[in-house]
Amino acid sequence: MDRAQQRSPWFWVPSISFSQAVPYVAVMMLSSVMYKKLGVSNTDLAFYTAWLYLPWVIKPLWSPIVELFGTKRRWIVLLQLLTGAALASVALTLHLPEFFRMSLAALWLMAFSSATHDIASDGYYMLGLPTQHQQAAFVGVRSAFYKLAMISGQGGLVYLAGRLTASSGDPAWAWSLVFGAMGTLMLALSAYHQLILPRPDTDRSHTGGGALWKDFVYTFRSFFQKPGIKATIGFLLLYRLGEAQLLKMAAPFLLDPRSQGGLGLSTETFGVVYGTVGVCALVLGGLAGGVVIARFGLKRSLLPMVFIMHVPDLVFVYLATALPTSNVLISACLAVEQFGYGFGFSAFMLYMVLVADGEHKTAHYAICTGFMALGMMVPGMVSGWIQQQLGYQYFFIWACVATLPAFFMTALVRIDPQFGKE
C-alpha cells in the first residue's frame, strides 16, 4: 500500500460525514426555515419539503449501479461536485416570480445527487473500515461530524440569514447568499476528497456485461431473504415515526408568533437555541451512544437507547403548553430532547450496518436507509396538516404517542449479543 492507502480514517471519515449532512440539512431544516420566512404555509412547506426525501427512499433502485460501475471514491468526488452546483443554483431562483417551484426543482436535483452520494459514501465506509470493531468505534465520530454540519447549517447559516435579513430587509437575498455558501462548501469538499481519499484495494468496479441484471435482481432478493426481515423493515419504518413529525414542525413552532401558538423566536435566536445549542447536545448524544454501544454491545443497549431517544420528546409538549419566554429555558429543553435523539440514533445507524453486513453490503445498506427515509417522508408530509388541525400543543402530544410503535418493534428485532462490542 502507498501512503494514501494507509492514511488514517481521521483524515476522511469526518469530512465525508460532514459532506453527507450538508445537503440533508438543506432538505431537513433550512428549506423549512427559508420557506417559512418567505411566506409559505405550514401545510405547503411540510408537504413539499417532505417530498424531497423521495430520492433517499427510492435510491435502492439504483444502488447496485453504484456498486457495479466505477469506484466508490470516484462517485463520491463527482457527486459532491454536482450537489454543490445544485445547491448554488437555488440561490439564483429566490428572486424569481416562481421562486417556490423553481427552488424546489433545484433542491430535487440536489436531493437525487445527494442520495446517490450517500450510497457511495456508506459503501466506502464499509470498505475503508472493514472490521466490525472499526465500524463501531467510528459510528460516534460519523454521527458527531454529521451533526457538526448541522450546527454549521442550522446554527451558523440560519443565524447569518437572520442577520442579513435584518440588515437588508430582503429575506430572499439573505437566503440566496446562504445557499450560495453551501454550494461553494460542497465544491471545496469535492476538491479536498479528490486529493485525500485513500484507494482501498477492495474499492473497484464490478461490471459484468450480461451479469448486471442477474446481480441487480440477486442484490434485492438476497436482502428480502435475510432472517427476520419483516421485523427489520418494521423497525426501520417505525423507529422515528413520532420524531419524523416532530422534526418537521419544530422550526415552524419555534418561529411562529405566540398569537399562533408558537414561541415567536427571531431567525437569529432560532439559529442559536435550536441550530447551535440543540445540535451541540445532539452531537454529544451521538458520541455517548457510540461509547455505550462499544462497551455493552448493541443488543443490551438498544432498548434503553430507545427510551432515552423518545421520552425527551415530551419537552415540546411543555414548551407548547407553557410558552416560556426565557431563551435559556428554551435552550435547555431543546438540549435535553436533542441529546436523547442523538443518543438513540447511534443505535439505529449501527443496526443498519448489522442488517447490511454480508455480500452486497453497499446496496443492502442503501435499502436500509431507503426504508429509513420512507419512515421520515410519509409522516413528515402530513405533519403540517395535522398541526393545523390540532394546534401545536395537541400536535406534540400526538407526536409523543406516535413514538410507541418504536418500542414494540425494538422487542422484535434480532441482534447478535456480541455485535458492536469491543
UniProtKB/TrEMBL annotation:
GO cellular component: membrane
Membrane topology: Multi-pass membrane protein
Membrane listed as a keyword: yes
InterPro entries: AmpG_permease/AT-1, BT1, MFS, MFS_trans_sf
One Pfam family from the record: MFS_1
GO molecular function, one term: transmembrane transporter activity
Signal peptide: none
TM region(s), chain numbering: 12-33, 45-63, 75-94, 148-166, 172-192, 271-294, 301-323, 329-353, 365-386, 392-413
Gene3D superfamilies linked: MFS general substrate transporter like domains
Subcellular location(s) of the protein: Membrane
Domain of life, source organism: Bacteria
Keywords: Membrane, Transmembrane, Transmembrane helix, Transport
Family: Belongs to the major facilitator superfamily. Folate-biopterin transporter (TC 2.A.71) family.
Protein name as annotated: MFS transporter
Source organism of this protein record: Rugamonas rivuli
